[in-house]
UniProtKB/TrEMBL annotation:
<comment type="pathway">
    <text>Membrane lipid metabolism; glycerophospholipid metabolism.</text>
</comment>
<feature type="binding site">
    <location>
        <position position="251"/>
    </location>
    <ligand>
        <name>sn-glycerol 3-phosphate</name>
    </ligand>
</feature>
<feature type="binding site">
    <location>
        <position position="252"/>
    </location>
    <ligand>
        <name>sn-glycerol 3-phosphate</name>
    </ligand>
</feature>
<feature type="binding site">
    <location>
        <position position="271"/>
    </location>
    <ligand>
        <name>NADPH</name>
    </ligand>
</feature>
<feature type="binding site">
    <location>
        <position position="132"/>
    </location>
    <ligand>
        <name>sn-glycerol 3-phosphate</name>
    </ligand>
</feature>
<keyword id="KW-1208">Phospholipid metabolism</keyword>
<feature type="binding site">
    <location>
        <position position="136"/>
    </location>
    <ligand>
        <name>NADPH</name>
    </ligand>
</feature>
<dbReference type="InterPro" id="IPR036291">
    <property type="entry name" value="NAD(P)-bd_dom_sf"/>
</dbReference>
<dbReference type="GO" id="GO:0141152">
    <property type="term" value="F:glycerol-3-phosphate dehydrogenase (NAD+) activity"/>
</dbReference>
<protein>
    <recommendedName>
        <fullName>Glycerol-3-phosphate dehydrogenase [NAD(P)+]</fullName>
        <ecNumber>1.1.1.94</ecNumber>
    </recommendedName>
</protein>
<dbReference type="InterPro" id="IPR006168">
    <property type="entry name" value="G3P_DH_NAD-dep"/>
</dbReference>
<feature type="domain" description="Glycerol-3-phosphate dehydrogenase NAD-dependent C-terminal">
    <location>
        <begin position="176"/>
        <end position="310"/>
    </location>
</feature>
<dbReference type="Pfam" id="PF01210">
    <property type="entry name" value="NAD_Gly3P_dh_N"/>
</dbReference>
<feature type="domain" description="Glycerol-3-phosphate dehydrogenase NAD-dependent N-terminal">
    <location>
        <begin position="4"/>
        <end position="155"/>
    </location>
</feature>
<dbReference type="GO" id="GO:0046167">
    <property type="term" value="P:glycerol-3-phosphate biosynthetic process"/>
</dbReference>
<feature type="binding site">
    <location>
        <position position="251"/>
    </location>
    <ligand>
        <name>NADPH</name>
    </ligand>
</feature>
<dbReference type="Pfam" id="PF07479">
    <property type="entry name" value="NAD_Gly3P_dh_C"/>
</dbReference>
């Protein structure tokens, strides 16, 4: 095959497969569980992960990694904390094609970004990252969205942009791979904070304060890591922050909301939990103040109550904006 392979058959992997098949591209969707992939091949749907969406017949669902051998682009969509394990296990079996990292998160053990994990596991592989505001369910239903494709290679970036864009999925290109990934990873932490405030009934003004000061934290850390501040003001930063902090479709926002209201914790992949811890470690390493990320990590890990976290944030010394 000479098309696209999507590795990781969760909600986002299925959505990407559906979009590309809808453009007439050949798509292999690989997932690790043979029984689930056989069921997906037969039913063309997974209502638990992606309700209301059917996969086009042009998507080949498989658990055999050898089927991706001829792919000309690999979209890696396993959850962020599992990218390292996946590549350690399967990296040697992947073809030498550009790898586009689609997960949003900083590895909590190594503090690496997704492209940094891939660069170590697949030395010399051409890499890019896909990030920005877009819920899998909406993308899969072909509702319009715009994402960021980040690629440091000036020849590969435009080529991937052209090959991976779709009629309803615009891709904006940047060479700021660090900035784009920091935005995508940290907006989840801020969405948990906003969800907590919403669940606790703290009001819309509190949410606006958390989003704006959270954006300042995201930008500070990104710049300390070598990114450009302007990248954070784009789709991958401000764009995704706006989406995720304002929608109950977001699992990060919903987790925060459950914690804020005392409801049961929802399951599923909530990337901001591990990334809050990673962000605190990076902020300490680089001497960057990140009080909201720290408060989120403290609440998630039981060191502070929600009231205690709010008190800690409100009692900080007054300062210039
Ligand atoms: N859902 C969304 O709206 C969007 C999600 N994203 C990002 O995409 C990433 C994936 O999210 P999403 O698809 O929603 O999450 P899901 O939980 O639906 O899917 C994650 C997938 O990763 C697979 N996986 C985990 N570990 C491994 C491993 N070691 N080897 C192989 N496969 C593995 C899981 O397999 P199994 O099913 O067997 O557990 C699962 O299919 C996240 O980083 C998220 O932030 C980005 C944009 C939108
Ligand atoms: O990244 C997303 C939208 O851009 C999805 O957000 P959640 O992971 O919080 O559901």
């Amino acid at each position: 095959m000479s098309g696209i392979a999507v590795l990781g058959a969760g909600a986002f992997g299925m959505a990407l497969a559906a979009v590309h098949a809808g453009e007439g591209r050949r798509v292999i969707l690989w997932g690790r569980d043979p029984a689930r992939m056989a069921a997906l091949a037969a039913r063309r749907a997974d209502p638990d992960r992606l309700p209301g969406v059917s996969l086009p017949e042009a998507v080949e669902c498989t658990a055999e990694i050898g089927r991706v051998r001829g792919a000309r682009a690999l979209l890696l969509a396993v959850s962020a904390q599992n990218t390292g394990a996946f590549l350690a296990e399967r990296g040697a079996e992947l073809p030498r094609a550009p790898v586009v990292l689609c997960a949003k998160g900083i590895d909590a053990r190594t503090l690496r970004l997704q492209t940094e994990i891939a660069a170590e596991a697949l030395p010399g592989a051409p890499l890019a990252a896909l990030t920005g505001p877009g819920f899998a369910g909406e993308i899969a239903r072909n509702l319009p969205s715009a994402l960021t494709l980040a690629c440091a290679d000036p020849a590969l970036g435009p080529d991937l942009q052209r090959r991976l864009a779709a009629r309803r999925l615009r891709l904006y290109l940047t060479d700021d791979v660090i900035g784009a990934q920091i935005g995508g990873a940290l907006k989840n932490v801020m969405a948990i904070a906003c969800g907590m405030a919403d669940g606790a009934g703290l009001g819309h003004s509190a949410r606006a304060a958390l989003m704006t000061r959270g954006f300042a934290e995201m930008t500070r850390l990104a710049v300390a890591l070598g990114a450009r501040a302007e990248t954070l003001a784009g789709l991958s930063g401000l764009g995704d922050l706006s989406l995720t902090c304002n929608s109950t479709q977001s699992r990060n926002f919903s987790l925060g909301r459950a914690l804020g209201s005392g409801a049961a914790r929802p399951g599923g992949t909530v990337e901001g939990v591990a990334t809050a811890r990673a962000a605190c470690a990076l902020s300490a390493r680089h001497g960057v103040e990140m009080p909201i990320a720290a408060a989120v990590a403290d609440v998630l890990e039981g060191r502070l109550t929600l009231d205690g976290a709010m008190e800690a944030l409100l009692s900080r010394p007054l300062r210039d904006e």
